[in-house]
Amino acid sequence: MKYAVVKGALAVAVTTMLSACGGKTLIESDMSHVVTASPASPWLTLENKGDHVVAVGGLSGPSKVEVSPDIPSAVEAVLRTSLQPKYFTDLIIGCRGLQQATAVHTPEGQTSVVTMDLTVNCRIVARGVVVSKIYHVSQTAPVETDPPRLDAIVPKLISGASTQLADQLWADVVATGVRR
Predict the structure, then answer these.
(1) Which of 121, 115, 118 is nearest to 94 (CA)?
(2) pLDDT in tens, 15-70
(3) How far apart are CA 143 and CA 120, in angstroms?
(4) DSSP-derived secondary structure for 125-152
(5) How confident is the model over 136-162, as pLDDT tens digits?
(6) Could you tell me the CA-to-CA distances from 150 to 39, 93, 94, 100 in Å, in that order?
(7) What is the CA radius of gyration of the chain?
């Protein structure tokens, strides 16, 4: 009888400790307003939709941010908003293979920063001229580590990195020599 009580108490203690360590590791971040506000641009696409989670390294515990609707949709929406005013006929931009890495770094004696690196393979067809390239962009922001407020920071990082990507894509469109 004593053995069963001790065994039960031990099981409760272990379960409590494990649940206390885990906490809520999935933080929700809504970017649906960015996606909804973007223009319809069938000439610009980002494939491989469905990746919802940004894993943020460098913090004391595992932190994950679930982006809604998903990361590629948010990136595509910012690209569409940035590039739609520059569109000309016979321009097609197709991207795929979006990857992201996000981590918090604390340089010695300085404020912590969070960095998001995006990598994506894009193909531009501007009136028959083709450019295919892998793009790398990086966006950094200061962050408090206790609590880090990742639900607000991650959308800003995605938007900032996507705007940089739009600038690089447009520079390559202009470099084709095709006029609007």
Answers:
(1) 121
(2) 333 333 344 568 898 899 999 999 999 999 999 777 889 999 988 877 899 999 99
(3) 25
(4) EETTEEEEEEEEEEEEEE--SSS--HHH
(5) 999 999 988 777 788 899 999 999 999
(6) 27, 31, 29, 15
(7) 22
User: Which residues neighbour 128 within 8 Å (Cβ) at sequence distance 6 or greater?
Assistant: 90
**Is residue 118 very low, low, confident or very high in pLDDT (cuts 50, 70, 90)?**
very high
d(CA 128, CA 92): 10
CA count, 13 A, side-chain hemisphere, 124: 23
Read off the pTM: 0.82
**Pair of tokens at residue 44:** 């610009």
Q: What is the DSSP string of 22-77?
A: H---EEEEE-HHHHHHSPP-TTEEE--TT--EEEEESSSS-EEEEEES-HHHHHHH
Q: What is the pLDDT of residue 148?
A: 78
For the domain made up of 25-175, the CATH class stated in words is alpha beta
Give the contacts of 6 (CB within 8 A, at least 6 positions apart).
none
Q: What is the pLDDT of residue 44?
A: 96
